[in-house]
Specification:
Shape: globular
Structural class: alpha/beta
Helix content: 25-40%
Largest sheet: 6 strands, mixed
Order of helices and strands: EEEHEHEHHHEHEHEEHEHEEHEH
Number of strands: 13
Low-confidence stretches: none
Strand order of the largest sheet: 5-6-7-3-8-9
Mean pLDDT: 88
Length: 286
């Protein structure tokens, strides 16, 4: 197997005339945390479902050296997945869920799951149906985090959780789960909460992968300038990808323009991932 956990060539998915995912080619290296960012309906979940072997697709796709369509059983030995809606047997008690997973998955560590749950208020003797939405997600997270998988796919993993637990979850992901031999793919709408853990990022718009980048390189490419009054025309000539107004001053966002040159136009700052996403999706350069 190569150092790329995922290799996609012309990966696509159509429903009749509708292209949920346009032909896309990309690779995901081993030991990275990839954030897949896009609006609702952009194609994020479609891509993940193809990677997980949950749907048919067009094009070529290799995940952990396996064909997801024909070798899903083998693939699932090394992959864990959390969907945006946690699905657990509602008639089981939490402790029985742990019993079940322990019996069917050889790489499940009950001790790890119990350690994770010890930091929550989830009662082990309560049935899943009696848990709040947040507690149900916490049980699901505990189970998945306790499985020794090489690829962890998280589709809106902290949906329904309060901000304190969301921060705890991502801290646990970094400290207790992730290492150079594992790969994590995560989608979320709370971009600001995950940008500090990402090594790579992918933007999807209308079923098309419009950007793939190393996180550090990406944040260096984009600069926002609060243009000094009188320099608007000069700022326009440098080709901003997006423009706005802040505190009565023109603001321009540039991609791959020398920072010293931009500093002559006014006050500069680097953008966070959410701002880069908005500028890329809506900017004039698109």
């Amino acid at each position: 197997m190569t150092d790329n956990v995922i290799e996609a060539r012309g990966l696509a998915k159509s429903y009749g005339d509708f292209q949920a995912l346009k032909p896309s080619s990309f690779s995901v290296p081993l030991g990275r945390i990839l954030g897949v960012i896009g609006a609702n309906g952009a194609g994020k979940t479609t891509m993940l479902n193809a990677v997980l072997g949950l749907m048919s697709y067009e094009g070529e796709l290799s995940v952990m050296g396996c064909n997801p369509s024909s070798e899903r059983g083998k693939l699932m030995q090394d992959v864990c997945f959390i969907a945006d809606v946690a699905t657990l047997p509602k008639w089981m008690k939490v402790s029985e869920v742990l019993d079940y997973v322990e019996g069917v998955h050889p790489r499940f560590s009950r001790d790890k799951a119990m350690d994770f749950l010890s930091r929550t208020k989830v009662p082990l003797d309560r049935k899943v149906r009696a848990l709040s939405k947040g507690m149900t997600v916490q049980v699901h997270l505990a189970v998945v985090m306790a499985i020794d998988a090489k690829l962890l796919v998280l589709d809106e993993p902290t949906l329904g959780l309060d901000i304190i637990f969301r921060k705890q979850f991502y801290a646990s992901l970094l400290e207790e789960y992730f290492d150079e031999n594992r790969t994590v793919i995560v989608t979320t709408h709370q971009v600001e909460e995950i940008e500090h853990i990402l090594s790579d990022v992918m933007f999807i718009k209308d079923g098309e992968v419009v950007l793939e980048a190393d996180m550090d390189e990406l944040t260096q490419q984009f600069i926002e300038v609060m243009v000094t009054p009188g320099k608007e025309e000069e700022a326009q000539k440098l080709g901003p990808i997006s423009k706005g107004v802040t505190f009565g001053k023109t603001t321009c966002i540039y991609k791959n323009i020398d920072r010293e040159k931009l500093a002559g136009l006014g006050e500069t700052r680097r953008l966070g991932l959410a701002d880069i996403f908005v500028a890329t999706m809506t900017g004039e350069g698109q």
